[in-house]
Amino acid sequence: MARTTRSAPTLSDVARHAGVSLATASRAINGSETRTVGEELRRRVIDSAQSLGYAPNANAQAMARGATRTIGVVVHDLTDPYFAEIADGIATAATEHKLFLTLATTGNKIEALGDMVTALDSMRVRAIILVGARWKDPDLHRGLHTSIEQYVRRGGRVVALGMDFPGVDCVHIDNEAGASALAEALVGRGYRRPLLLAGPERHSTAAARAAGFAARMAELGHPIPPTHRIGSDFTRTGGTIGMRLAIEAGLDYDVVVATSDVMALGALHEASRSGVQIPTDVGLTGFGDVSTLIDVRPSLSTVHVPTRQLARLGLDLALHGPGDGNGSVTVEAIPVLRDSTPPRTGA
User: Fold this and answer.
1) What phi, psi does 330 have (nearest 5°)?
2) At 143, is the secondary structure helix, strand, or coil?
3) Strand order of the sheet with strand 229-230?
4) Which terminal residue of the chain, N or C, has fewer Cβ atoms less than 10 Å from its own Cβ?
5) If one looks up domain 70-172+307-331 in CATH, what number appears?
6) Is 298 within 8 Å of 93 (Cβ atoms)?
7) What is the pTM of this model?
């Protein structure tokens, strides 16, 4: 079908016409300081662009060639030490590359991600790193995908840390395996009746951690009844509320397993307020191993997520990755048992 004058060809059109990825088409037309395209492939893309009448954008060429020195980073909640540590790690690594950082936060409003990408796009940042979880909401995905596609079309790169997004280079955390290993470690210490503070069901990180832990507990012969799986916000307040609900319901459990460290801290506060002694009465674990846990008493068992490694991998993908999802990597999450989960004698 012939194109109307109101519908100018886009870089996506060129990529489809040439049979290449959007990232390859961008490198072929806009150039790149880090990755080059073979002459035969570049010629095919250029021929498609000429055939369609596509005119490259000067700003896109500047971004693709590394003319800008700013990296955009979007996190959900800067008051959460987990996100703060990753943002600080990216800032440190960016400084080593003589790059600047523009930091934005959604304030835990996942629907704001698309708007953040659009805003950073207008600032002509060289790359955008999205830090946080994916929510199971097709409408949100469509809006975010549109913003990302427009930014990539102009020559930018997007990397996701801790979330899975089609066509985008990602740094994955093996949350399910880490949670499964935590279940094994707790059973090895004599725990049999966990209370799982699972976080929101639509939150991909919380869901993966809860699923990995529950599945392994069932395999080990200690399935978690529905009454002992409580959903709440993925925040300190969420942990407080989840713990309060369990105490008010008079549930019987020997360890509280929170799917994030901040939730565990909320649970610890509520337990103390309600006269539940940790670890004498019940054990407690978190997930993440943020540095501020050094000040918590008793020292908190958790699952270590290497935030500094995440940050460096994310920036490296933003600068040198393929930009089409093929550069995605996965990092391990490893249980660390401390004073909050001592061995249960006579279990």
Assistant:
1) -125, 135
2) helix
3) 229-230, 194-197, 255-258, 283-285
4) N
5) 3.40.50.2300
6) no
7) 0.77
Fold matches, 70-172+307-331 and 175-305: yes
Q: Distance between CA 123 and CA 126 in Å, rounded?
A: 9
Tokens of 153: 């079309």
Q: Tens digit of pLDDT for each residue in 182-195?
A: 999 999 999 999 99
3-state helix, strand, coil in the chain (%, to 5): 45, 15, 40
Going from the C-alpha of 137 to that of each of 173, 201, 238, 259, 297, the distances in angstroms are: 20, 11, 21, 21, 38
Length of the chain: 347
Q: Where are the domains of the chain?
A: 1-55, 70-172+307-331, 175-305
Residue 7 pLDDT more than 80?
Answer: no
Cβ count near 176 (within 10 Å): 18
> What is the dihedral angle through the alpha carbons of 170, 174, 175, 176, rounded to the nearest 10 degrees?
130
Q: What is the rounded CA–CA span in Å between residue 202 and residue 135?
A: 5
The class (CATH top level) of 175-305 is alpha beta
167: left (phi over 0), alpha (psi -120 to 50) or beta: left
- Lowest mean pLDDT: which of 58-72, 208-222, 238-252? 58-72
Q: Does domain 1-55 have CATH number 1.10.260.40?
A: yes
Cis peptide bond upstream of 298, omega within 30: yes
